[in-house]
């Protein structure tokens, strides 16, 4: 095995250097305790549940799946379909305890293993298995921890009753539908009333949706399964909210679901009020509603509108304890906040997320200056100047309860997690990152596009290098960020003899609302133009970039841009590896695609312009198409359609199918696939 192969193998064994790192934190409401998941070391994928005393920093194990299911610690082939897909979407790919829910005081935690339900008393570390009616998914304890709600076979149950709380009416109860879990940021579908006497639950009717087949990732080569898929321009799931009382009562919450079909968020404000956020189909109007759980009547509390789309700002809209309404306040230059419609003073900041409250102020993750860095600020709801809590460049994030703050700081040197005010550090057993990577960052062109160049270690100036454009470029994801793990594979690629270039084109987040919305109704041209212009601008400052040998690789939207690059700009790009590309957005999902492109029937030209299939006859450069056969996000049919169009046009190309691979386990994390990409690019670029 070569050194380069060994590095890829190490990345695979260590879960991309994530095994052994703490994750999935929950602070007790009084800030005195912290629950977290972590495995025993860098090559152990099995996550266990730990409890940490924030005053002393002492930590102890409270639930170990190895003792609960010896020899079967969360194997994915035994997971219920819903749980497996949720893990993939939220990138919780570790074995063992993939996720948990706890009471507010963290006295009780519950979780599912292999479809079985467990409840842990965190004070004693005692874990009991609870009887369930079927493979359990998404268990949630009530405030006391004595009863647990869970989903089994599309019905909602409460322990210990084996009879479902939800009616048997052919709908799915208590779960997030595809659009919510995949595109709207809502991964759950049931919520306990604070007093434990009822549950707020989704009712999801998918009968009008087409079905899509995908291979089971745990059983490659065996018959797979189908699922309801909301395709652009077609029907969505019919989602309703009900209050299901443990006494048998049922009340439906009523709003204009025809006009506002998307349920983005829901929660209990008190026993007597439910808060829910809904959006219209094009997501240009978002309402925060208050609902009376006794009658089902709703009233509008706030309305956010945008001529493009209302870009989600996590943590908004919301109501503060004093009753004021917190909403997003966007200008073309900055993302900000408003209380009761009055903008707060966030001058110089881009608000990225409202985490919660700390010391009677709003705890926010922010950007300022270079978008590669993320900071943590306290924003005064009464108008005072923002207070910076994080120090130095990097990607900083936070979690808070009462007076306790968990501050995570990712810099070129690594990741630290500190509990403030006492300064205790969380134990991290993950493998050390092989490289300390300091990409050369620059903002280029008149659009100030964020870019990065990574050279081989020990590169001698004056030696010309082929260029590898490592691209994503799509909405919702920032590629150029000062987070150390994401640069490891790029440094590996550079060490193979490439100058690796990454550009965040317009449409990507965290620069400004105007920067993000430049792709409205036109995906392809804006992104491709920006990638080309940035590459040429970088070459002017980096003379070792050989623009006569430019390859491009990407996954998902990045796979789309990679294929687009060689199809439409063969004068610039000379070879491409396109992983899981959405080749025709008319075949992609409603909530994502229509947010940016509108309805296909209203914008046929835009959809046609962004479709790769009609470009197939013009392919003049080497193209490798890669797709996981278990991908339920960008369905494998996307790559099949493009390959068929290329074959009919007589255009040579290569296809690499990946049995058992889903959308969230892309080729870039697979040693064999990465080496196949390397061989293809070396052969194609000479």
Q: Would you write up a description of this structure?
A:
- This protein is α+β, with helices and mostly antiparallel strands.
- It contains twelve helices and 43 strands.
- Strands 36-37-39-38-40-41-42-43 form an eight-stranded mixed β-sheet.
- Strand 6 and strand 7 (108-113) form a beta hairpin.
- The longest helix has 19 residues, at 523-541.
User: In percent, how helical is the residue content?
Assistant: 10-25%
Gap from first CA to last CA: 24 Å
Give the number of DSSP strands.
Answer: 43
What spatial order of strands do you see in the largest sheet?
Answer: 36-37-39-38-40-41-42-43
| Poorly predicted segments | 73-80, 87-93
Overall pLDDT, averaged?
Answer: 93
Classification by helices and strands: alpha+beta
The gyration radius over C-alpha positions equals 25 Å
Largest sheet entry: 8 strands, mixed
Which of globular, elongated, flat, extended, rod-shaped describes the shape? globular
Question: Outline of this structure?
Answer:
Helix content is 17%, strand content 34%. The chain is of the alpha+beta class.
Q: Which labels suit this protein?
A:
globular; five-stranded mixed beta sheet; 34% strand; 43 strands; 686 residues; alpha+beta; eight-stranded mixed beta sheet; 17% helix
